[in-house]
Write a structure and sequence with these properties.
The complex is a heterotrimer of chains A (246), B (646) and C (205).
Chain A: E1 3-9, E2 18-24, H1 33-46, E3 69-70, E4 73-74, E5 96-100, E6 109-111, E7 114-115, H2 118-125, H3 147-157, H4 164-168, H5 175-186, H6 189-192, H7 195-208, H8 219-223, H9 231-245
Parallel strand pairs in A: 1-5
Antiparallel strand pairs in A: 1-2, 3-4, 3-5, 6-7
Chain B: H1 16-23, H2 29-32, E1 36-40, H3 44-56, E2 59-63, E3 81-82, H4 94-104, H5 111-130, E4 156-157, H6 163-180, E5 184-187, E6 190-198, E7 201-209, E8 215-219, E9 222-225, H7 246-253, E10 258-259, E11 264-270, E12 293-297, H8 300-308, E13 321-322, H9 324-328, H10 338-353, E14 362-365, H11 367-373, H12 375-393, E15 402-411, E16 414-415, E17 428-430, H13 448-468, H14 482-499, H15 507-521, H16 528-548, H17 560-584, H18 608-611, E18 613-618, E19 627-632
Chain C: H1 2-24, H2 28-40, H3 42-72, H4 87-90, H5 92-116, H6 130-137, H7 141-168, H8 176-204
Helix pairs in contact in C: 1-2, 1-3, 1-7, 1-8, 5-7, 7-8
The chains are: A alpha+beta (246), B alpha+beta (646), C mainly alpha (205).
Chain lengths: 246, 646, 205
């Protein structure tokens, strides 16, 4: 395949970036999107140019490190996958592919396509856990958990923290990310104890970090590589009201 | 010469750990606040250790090269975690888990360590449930179990196909809580470059800020390495792109012994390599072998035509297919252990029967199972795996057989540690996959997660105190010491010299070459001649690397090529040591298969008389041959036997 | 935001009910009396203040949230491919501006006139002839078109607003959400249909 790439290049956080056009040829349709970028980078290196910087690690869709806006969609034109699982056969020969970093105030660009998502870690540090020390756990089967609840909890817990929800949301809101964590823990008896406090703290932190507000548009759900449901946001809202009213 | 003292406690096997804990030194709460611990790596072993130590009151500094501690590669583990809970009431016990692990490791691990691992396995499950890990449940609300290879009982706890992710998030959350409370200072995107030793003790690290390129100094009373495995020495593996050996290797060069470097595990069911541009391999769960049948064409001409694309698998009649595992191992068939299945696939492909455009693949066929059980049943069991396969290969495994090939995915070898998980450098500890581990020469499925968390939650937080109890009078110290100066200078010079090569070839060019050498000669089947060739070729490649490497960009800037180059520089040295270790071990055991040492039927032939030991290698200086020290393995409980799967 | 929205949603129904009297009843006095009651009753007067409060709250919140949302993405994407989402939800602030403009004109035309202007009295004491005012206004085709168009935009606003309000209040699950979605469409059809029917019917009478 021969392709035209229009890639956002930005030297560092403070300098202004711009789009740079590249041409690349002989790409196998069986290669992954990131492997296509590897090929581009090898070419750039052979000319002595700096390769395009992008975040990536496991390359099997679970670590949540990779993330870029490909042709107007987070993780590109396929459903329920991350950028590293996107394959070139999803593109047409000769197509122009526009590649941009996540755009959000809370996710500033570090270089080229790499952004700083430490805001997600800060959110997690504000109560995104069960307060239990190592060693003081009762036997694992002491508290039975309804299978349905455990399954729902697992649905929410599959979030990989890639930031596609924020990237896709027209308001750059982190509601889906926060709600996935709040739901995961609120649905289990172990996490239920702190559920209200958790919702209140995480929502307040989310606002403080400069994420936008939820307008129930649903772009986050549509673009989430793990299929996290919008119903989690409603559950977060319920927990939040419980915390603020009762 | 370094002396190895494994510090195995006295007493009967099942009392050793309790005896140790009863008699060890502890640090009182007021003193804990005054002691700093550096933990490098935030996978299962690192995050759990950092969280547990911080909860106890120590001041922890935690490092990872990723942008967030949650991204460590433990997250990619699929299958599950073993524990001797015996919830299914099928006869499991601590002893049985211990026995299976020793036997699975082909009798090349330490009895006392493995017994302790089995002992604490149950606590891990309790701890994870309390943290809110959403394990699979039965309708009655109790925890569900499934069975895994190498065991006669169901003892594997799981969270769908994402057990590693859920356990890691549990540990990450525990760590996040301690960061919030100020007990952990978190340093993401920070890569350990060097170890600082003062008066013979590990006292700190030099780390490179990945964003700015700046070298930074960190001091502590003790350093813990939880930096994972070194599978990426093969270039293509199921490891994450950033997984590397550098922290462990730099420590090796500072005096830590490296145990059994040649023991790596090759997983039989990965999606095959499909081209030169490929960057990584994806694992397909071992569970697929329950219902899939593995075969290659019986005639070479057919295999050739398939490779050329003239015919497809479906065109071959039943009598044209060779179900080689069923043929060779009628008793276990497609369910032979990982090392056996991997070697058999390689043997067929090397003989010219491989399929796929590269000829390096075999079929995993579900046709018979679909006919027998129906497509719906197969979909319910393996739907997500089939979907993943289709996303990657664009082939529908319900209609055409899957193609699979073995790939590197775990390193049993690693830094040598004693019973306390301490390396041969006082104050330097290694946990999880980074240490030479409890898995001997072969790891059983669902045991990596168990070991990582056992080390981090329940072993290291005790054993490290036995060391730190002697450090309570050491005040926090500054990094303005000649030792830190020297370590930083050393690292800085290394980086500058790499930048200054200004050759013509990229890091990946060399890494791919190293991978080819390793895979060819130090991979699934090894022999004396090949290993000698490997050592020669790696040395040549290293020369080429230092003469012709090109790193664009700046030294003091975000520079992924420089990061890759420093990691590869260490892999280029490790590769040689692996080959030397494999050359030394003139027997076949577990993942280490020497072609010269096999039974008449082509099975691994152990030599317990001569090689019943851990090979711990120590660095003797650049350009000098490393020294090998033996730690003899003593089996008091278990009778050592030959494995047989016919 | 959502509470104020739901409050306004309820108000619209009451408003519609009274307005429909103009076309549903032959005798204009029925509507005039109802309007008079709404304009003079003490309880209603209090509710009037609450209503204005509701509007104000809804608008102020909307402005604050919208500004926050714009600030949350200082640099926009070069290329956007629409996700699988409802278009109405993406255009809330725009439909809101149109509705707001309409509201201003609407208040000037009817509400302030009825309150402070010189609307002719009817035979009954104190009861103003609002019915005639309305019927007069809706003889102008431009006005009718503007009125109808505005309500269509209000409809766009409501079709997302109605169900979104419930989601924000935490009501989103497999059982209720489909019901709420049907309700939101029904409600929008009734409100838009009802309000636009009035000028159209009057114009063609």
């Amino acid at each position: 395949m021969d392709l035209k790439l229009k890639i956002w290049r930005q030297k560092n956080a403070s300098e202004r970036g711009r789009f740079v056009n590249y041409k690349i040829s002989n790409i196998s349709p069986d290669s992954s999107f990131l492997e296509m970028l590897d090929v581009l980078n090898e070419e750039l290196i052979s000319f002595g140019e700096e390769p395009v910087v992008f975040d990536h690690d496991c390359r099997e869709g679970i670590c949540g490190t990779c993330g870029m806006y490909i042709n107007g969609r987070p993780h590109g034109p396929d459903e329920l996958i991350t950028a590293c699982q996107l394959h070139m056969r999803k593109f047409r020969d000769g197509e122009t592919i526009v590649i941009e970093p996540w755009r959000a105030r809370a996710f500033p660009v570090i270089k080229d396509l790499m952004v700083d998502r430490s805001a997600f870690d800060e959110l997690m540090q504000d109560s995104g856990y069960v307060s239990v020390n190592t060693g003081n756990a009762p036997d694992a089967n002491t508290i039975p958990v309804q299978k349905e609840q455990a399954d729902l909890s697992m649905d929410a817990a599959t979030c990989i923290g890639c930031g596609a929800c924020v990237a896709a949301c027209k308001n750059a809101s982190a509601m889906l990310f926060v709600s996935a964590k709040v739901s995961h823990l609120a649905l289990l008896p172990q996490g239920r104890v702190e559920a209200k406090k958790r919702a209140a703290l995480m929502v307040a932190k989310m606002d403080a970090l400069g994420f936008g507000n939820c307008t129930n548009t649903g772009a986050c759900e549509a673009e989430c590589p793990k299929g996290i449901k919008l119903t989690n946001i409603a559950r977060l809202n319920r927990e939040y009201y419980k915390a603020s009213i009762f | 010469m370094t002396k190895l003292d494994s510090k195995i406690p006295e007493g009967p096997l099942d009392k050793k750990w309790s005896n140790y804990k009863a008699n060890q030194n502890l640090v009182n709460p007021a003193n804990k606040r005054k002691l700093d611990i550096i933990v490098v790596g935030t996978g299962l072993a690192g995050a759990s250790a950092a969280a547990s130590l911080a909860e106890m009151g120590f001041k922890v500094k935690s490092f990872c090269y990723q942008d967030s501690p949650r991204r460590a590669h433990s997250i990619a583990a699929q299958g599950g975690i073993n524990a001797a809970k015996n919830y299914p009431n099928d006869g499991d016990s601590v002893y049985r888990l211990f026995y299976d692990t020793i036997k699975g490791g082909d009798y090349r691990s330490r009895e006392a360590n493995v017994y302790r691992l089995a002992e604490v396995s149950n606590q891990i499950i309790d701890q994870c449930v309390a943290q809110g890990v959403p394990f699979a449940r039965e309708y009655g609300g109790t925890l569900a179990n499934r069975s895994f290879g190498g065991a006669l009982v169901s003892r594997t706890f799981y969270a769908r196909g994402q057990t590693g992710q859920q356990l890691l998030l549990g540990a990450y959350q525990a760590q996040s809580r301690q960061i919030k409370q100020g007990n952990i200072e978190m340093y993401p995107r920070m890569e350990m470059m060097n170890l600082v030793i003062i008066d013979g003790k590990a006292r700190g690290i030099i780390a490179r800020d990945v964003i700015t390129g700046e070298l930074k100094r960190f001091s502590a009373h003790s350093v813990v390495l939880a930096t994972g495995g070194y599978g990426n020495v093969f270039f293509l593996s199921t490891m994450a792109m950033g997984s590397n050996v550098s922290a462990a290797w730099q420590s090796y060069k500072k005096g830590a012994a490296f145990g059994n470097p040649c023991f790596v595990q090759i997983h039989p069911t990965c999606i095959p390599v499909h081209g030169e541009y490929q960057s990584k391999l994806t694992l397909m769960s071992e569970s697929l072998r329950n219902d899939g049948r593995i075969w290659v064409p019986k005639h070479k001409e057919d295999a050739e035509r398939i490779r050329k694309g003239e015919i497809t698998a479906g065109d071959l009649p039943e009598e044209g297919r060779d179900y080689y595992l069923e043929r060779r191992y009628p008793a276990f068939g497609n369910l032979v252990p990982r090392d056996v299945a991997s070697r058999a696939a390689k043997e067929r492909c090397d003989a010219g029967f491989g399929v796929g455009n590269t000829g390096l693949a075999v079929y995993l066929d579900f046709k018979d199972s679909i006919e027998r059980l129906g497509k719906d049943t197969i979909e319910a069991k393996y739907g997500n795996l089939f979907q993943m396969y289709e996303k990657i290969t664009d082939e529908n495994p319900y209609e055409t057989p899957m193609m699979i090939y073995p790939a590197i995915h775990y390193a049993m070898g690693g830094l040598w540690v004693d019973y306390e998980l301490q390396t041969t450098i006082p104050g330097l500890f290694a946990t999880g996959e980074a240490n030479f581990s409890d898995h001997g020469a072969n790891r059983l499925g669902a045991s990596a997660l168990m070991q990582g968390l056992a080390d981090g939650y329940f072993v290291l937080p005790y054993t490290i105190q036995n060391y730190l109890a002697h450090e309570i009078n050491t005040p926090r110290f500054s990094t303005d010491t000649p030792e830190f100066d020297a370590a930083e200078k050393e690292t800085s010079e290394q980086l500058i010299s790499l930048m200054n090569i200004k050759g013509t070839k990229s890091v990946d060019t060399f890494h791919k070459k190293l991978g080819k050498i390793m895979w060819e000669y130090v991979g699934m089947a090894r022999n004396m001649e090949g290993l000698k060739t490997a050592i020669e070729e790696i040395r040549e490649l290293r020369k080429d690397f230092y003469a012709n490497l090109r790193i664009p960009g700046e030294l003091n800037d975000l520079n992924p090529e420089l990061q890759k180059a420093t990691r590869l520089a260490d892999f280029l040295e490790l590769g040689e040591l692996m080959a030397m270790d494999a050359l030394n071990r003139e027997e076949s055991c577990g993942g280490h298969f020497r072609e010269e040492y096999q039974t008449g039927e082509g099975e691994a032939l152990r030599d317990d008389k001569q090689y019943n030991y851990v090979a711990a290698w120590t660095f003797s200086g650049e350009g000098k041959a490393p020294e090998m020290i033996r730690e003899a393995l003593v089996f008091e409980e278990i009778e050592v036997k030959q494995r047989n799967y016919k | 935001m959502s509470l104020a929205g739901i409050f306004l949603i309820t108000f619209l129904l009451v408003h519609l009910g009274i307005n429909l009297l103009v076309i549903l009843n032959e005798d204009p006095m029925v509507f005039n009396r109802a309007a008079h009651f709404m304009g003079t009753n003490k309880v209603i007067k209090i509710f009037e203040i609450v209503l204005f409060g509701g509007f104000l709250l809804h608008i102020i919140y909307a402005l604050i949230l919208q500004v926050q949302n714009w600030l949350a993405r200082p640099k926009r994407y070069h290329k956007m491919t629409r996700s699988d989402t409802s278009a109405f939800s993406r255009w809330m602030i725009h439909t809101a501006l149109i509705v707001f403009a309409f509201l201003a004109i609407h208040l000037a035309d009817f509400y302030f006139k009825a309150k402070f202007g010189d609307v002719g009295e009817t035979s009954e004491e104190g009861v103003h002839d609002l019915a005639s005012l309305i019927i007069d206004k809706f003889q102008m085709p431009g006005f009718v078109i503007f009125y109808v168009a505005s309500f269509i935009f209000l409809g766009f606003h409501l079709i997302h607003g109605f169900q979104s309000a419930f989601k924000t209040l935490g009501l989103n699950n497999k059982t209720y959400t489909p019901v709420i979605q049907v309700l939101s469409i029904l409600y929008t059809i009734i409100v838009v249909g009802g309000f636009t029917a009035i000028p159209i019917v009057i114009y063609f009478q």
